[in-house]
């Protein structure tokens, strides 16, 4: 298991208070050192602010804040800042400027809140996804935007992260290897729950103890750990391949929903303070096995929607045809919003139309955390 991100939540303001930002950078670098000394590999350190619309009131201020945050990241070895979410439909189109001005800044739009769907916001988000697809090669700018549905503050994972309240810190882990080894050891669905719980709980108790002490020493809040199953492009860390150790066939075959539910149940029973999704992530282009099974046609977008009902974060890093219409994207977003509200659970969508390509063609990303795969039909 690795630490994918240590994310510090802070309150953005204009003009930007650089002295506070420098202090937060010092805290993050110190946290990284503490966890590494304890034997945990730390991949990234990040920051997330409250909803940007709360402290950015004009185009001039918008440009100034985005530029300041971008320079701060570059100068202080902070990988990314999330400028939070917007709850206002008319502000969604402005997110294109964030992505156009910086590759270090992420953002989101809240399309369902308090279990109420904002249909206008869903439509505006669909248009934004189409616009962002044209900003960079292979539609890559959509990596930095998420549509959110009933997601709470304090999630450490990007692009969903945003802040609300006192300064604090949360942790997101990359843990597909632990699911892979636990299910390999279990070999059968009847033993899967116990093996996974034993494997994860022991590791997380150690991590949580270090994090709790660190935040106390720094005088900041400790939000907890998001234990969501987060995978990588290593085949031996693939969630899809982990499922297949339990003898029910390939990922996407009957039994997939049951296994997904087992994972989420284990995550929600861990003996520690948690935050974020606390579910199973199924990012098509960030998991070697998911990418391969997609190439084989073992599952489709409808399957992923169904799996979201019992487990995960929604639809993540989904490669779509460049010609997909805003209307189709809107329909997909309101389906996710409906699931989220009906089930009263956080979901999100990171949809990536690929300009000039059609369903069945391969993506061609040059990004170390992606596995290229076939573009999915919709």
Summary keywords:
378 residues, alpha/beta, Anaerobic Ribonucleotide-triphosphate Reductase Large Chain, ten-stranded mixed β-sheet, 11 helices, 40% helix
What's the average pLDDT? 96
Distance between the termini: 34 Å
Task: Give the percentage of residues in beta strands.
Answer: 15-25%
Number of helices: 11
Oligomer: single chain
- CATH fold label: Anaerobic Ribonucleotide-triphosphate Reductase Large Chain
Largest sheet geometry: 10 strands, mixed
Along the chain, the helix and strand elements come as EHEHEHEEHEEHHEHHHHEHE
Q: Please give the radius of gyration in angstroms.
A: 20 Å
How does the overall form come out from the CA principal axes?
globular
Helical proportion?
A: 40-55%
How many independent structural domains?
Answer: 1
CATH class: Alpha Beta
- Structural class by helix and strand composition: alpha/beta
Give the beta-strand count: 10
The CATH architecture term is Alpha-Beta Barrel
The low-pLDDT segments are: none
Quick description:
The protein is built from eleven helices and ten strands. The protein has 378 residues and is of the alpha/beta class.
What features would you describe in this structure?
- The chain has 378 residues and is of the alpha/beta class.
- It has a single domain, classed as Anaerobic Ribonucleotide-triphosphate Reductase Large Chain, CATH 3.20.70.
- It has eleven helices and ten strands.
- Strands 1, 2, 3, 4, 5, 6, 7, 8, 9 and 10 form a ten-stranded mixed beta sheet that branches.
- Strand 1, helix 1 and strand 2 form a beta-alpha-beta unit.
- Helix 5 (176-186) packs antiparallel against helix 6 (189-218) and helix 6 runs parallel beside helix 8 (256-267).
- The protein is globular.
- The model has no long low-confidence stretch (mean pLDDT 96).
